[in-house]
Design a protein that fits this description.
alpha/beta; five-stranded parallel beta sheet; binds 2-acetamido-2-deoxy-beta-D-glucopyranose; Rossmann fold; 471 residues; membrane; disordered N terminus
């Protein structure tokens, strides 16, 4: 088996950063990145003090709404941003007592098939366009002759995959709180069918389906940071990192009578402003419950974690290298990571007896025998030992997923449920890296990377669980 890695794979977890072509916007970009970093950092801090044991099935405490009503949104951008949207949608569904219709995870290694945030109509047509070609191509084998999308011109679309969230994450706690329905397409007509909303048959454009429809309440954000939802009637916020423009009371959302609330985007960690302590606690419990649950992925990661010395016995690091400001800033990122790492490693361990062994690989077993600090790096670098050589030459016992090729075998042959022709391995890599570093004693981060932020948060969840449940 040849071990290949997909370039930019971690970037698929990252915020979709606008490509600003002009140098004079560079400072703006830095400011935006800083704000993004601090806002994700703030939300991480805010969760920490309210860590509590997950309670079994607390009942929603809001008054009931009669008849089943639905809530849904459109996914966009990369994995981690889709996860943020999902979490916000779960909160809003719970607070409005609506069944949440969950769109699938969108995944494609091709940047051309990335679906960035766009206004409602563009986003909808992008999603349905890709889906249409993908589905047409899946029929090409059956009847090649008449399908216009069967030529190799469209072969890129084969890499576009939709994955049911429940295949990867544990929804058992959430399903005790709200009703969820997974969907695997974006057609508005199919959405109406799920919600039992009548469809006018003559014209099925989005405009027509939404126009004068008493069953559907559409919330259109005029831009990515338009509406911010508030869980109390107090819309005051001294959150200086708040990017959102217009307050929207969740209590107003609850009053909507329409069968379906359809919102274009729920992007962003700051999308919901929390002031109600009960809701903050519920949200923390929900976030903690939403853990990776894919059994084979967990098996593989546990085996690697054990090989590294077990939970909390090695140090996890994330170094993002491959794109955007991270690529340009790589030297600084590496130096910063090394500074952070020095805080964890005994300064004497390297300098005295092993000065000649610097620049040499020490086997994991020897690292354990010599009681060296073991470091595991999650990275999108294709050749970590070259690209991150400064880290490898500063610390003797540094490893990456490439050092555990045999452990990964059980994941190699898994194919997507929705497309048996495509292997899932490239989708698994970043999740595997995430699981490994978050099982360490701590996570050393690349600043302003959302992947780093999520790994650090995931580490807190795992550590908290071990403390309270006494593993
Ligand atoms: C929530 O909505 C359902 C209908 O979908 C209704 O039967 C139920 O009573 C409501 N429950 C609460 C707690 O609001
Ligand atoms: C998505 O829409 C944008 C413009 O709205 C377009 O430039 C892009 O090519 C579309 N992508 C796909 C895959 O349809
Ligand atoms: C194939 O593409 C056409 C539009 O070109 C679309 O009407 C049709 O629904 C697609 N088929 C499938 C199975 O998606
Ligand atoms: C494939 O398409 C051709 C041309 O439209 C048609 O004659 C034929 O019956 C189709 N075959 C199948 C198996 O659908
Ligand atoms: C479909 O409906 C929309 C909105 O009502 C209208 O603008 C459009 O012209 C209609 N298209 C067709 C093909 O009838
Ligand atoms: C907002 O300001 C008040 C008083 O100035 C302060 O107590 C509170 O901690 C601040 N909240 C945040 C989120 O900064
Ligand atoms: C190292 O630890 C010290 C003391 O805890 C802290 O002040 C410093 O910021 C840390 N350095 C880095 C790079 O994390
Ligand atoms: C460390 O091991 C790797 C893989 O076995 C090898 O490619 C690399 O050259 C080694 N590096 C050094 C400095 O020995
Ligand atoms: C994966 O599939 C190949 C053939 O496609 C097979 O030779 C190999 O044994 C399989 N590996 C595992 C771990 O199942």
């Amino acid at each position: 088996m040849i071990f290949t890695r997909e370039a930019l794979k971690h970037s698929q977890f990252e915020a979709n950063k606008a490509k600003l072509p002009f140098k004079n916007l560079f400072i703006l970009l830095i400011i935006i990145s800083l704000i993004a970093f601090f806002s994700s950092f703030m939300s991480f801090i805010e969760l920490t003090p309210s860590l509590n044991i997950i309670k079994s099935n607390p009942k929603p405490y809001y008054t009931p709404i009669k008849e089943e009503k639905f809530f849904t949104y459109l996914p966009h951008s990369q994995f981690h941003n889709q996860l943020i949207e999902l979490k916000n949608a779960i909160v809003l569904s719970y607070l409005t007592n609506r069944t949440l219709i969950i769109p699938p995870i969108l995944h494609s290694p091709s940047s051309e098939l990335a679906v960035p945030y766009q206004p409602l109509h563009e986003l909808y047509y992008n999603l349905t366009f890709i889906e249409t070609i993908k589905k047409n191509r899946s029929l090409c084998k059956i009847n090649h002759s008449r399908k216009r999308y069967c030529s190799s011109e469209f072969s890129e679309y084969d890499s576009f995959i939709m994955i049911n969230w429940e295949e990867i994450f544990d929804f058992s706690w959430i399903k005790n709180q709200i009703k969820i329905i997974n969907r695997n397409d974006f057609s508005m007509v199919d959405l109406y069918k799920i919600c039992n909303i009548p469809i006018k048959l003559n014209n099925n454009t989005l405009e027509d389906l939404l126009q004068d429809n008493k069953n559907v309440y559409v919330i259109i954000n005029n831009h990515k940071y338009h509406y911010r939802f508030f869980d109390t009637d107090d819309t005051y916020t001294n959150d200086t990192s708040n990017k959102y423009e217009t307050p929207y009371l969740i209590s107003d959302l609850r009053k909507r009578e329409e069968k379906l609330i359809f919102i274009d985007t729920l992007f962003g960690n700051g999308r919901i402003d929390y002031k109600d302590e009960r809701i903050i606690e519920w949200k923390s419990n929900m976030h903690r419950s939403l853990k990776i649950s894919h059994p084979i992925l967990l098996d593989v990661s546990n085996n690697i974690v054990n090989e590294l010395g077990g939970f909390g016995n090695y140090l996890g690091v994330h170094v993002r290298t491959a794109d955007g400001s991270f690529k340009d800033n790589l030297e600084n990122i590496i130096d910063n990571v090394i500074e952070q790492l020095k805080n964890y490693t005994q300064t004497n361990s390297k300098t005295d007896d092993k000065s000649d062994s610097i620049n040499e690989n020490i086997s994991l077993n020897n690292c354990k025998l010599k009681n060296e600090q073991i470091i595991f790096i999650a990275t999108d670098a294709l050749e970590p030992r070259k690209k991150l050589s400064k880290i490898f030459s500063t610390f003797p016992c540094v490893f990456t997923i490439g050092d555990f090729k045999n452990f990964i075998d059980p994941l190699r042959n898994i194919t997507y449920t929705s497309d048996k022709n495509v292997k899932m391995l490239n989708f698994f890599y970043p999740l595997l890296d995430l699981l490994i570093i978050s099982n360490g004693m701590d996570v050393v981060v690349t600043h302003s990377s959302t992947f780093s932020g999520f790994a650090k948060y995931y580490h807190q969840i795992l550590a908290f669980e071990r403390d309270t449940l006494g593993f």
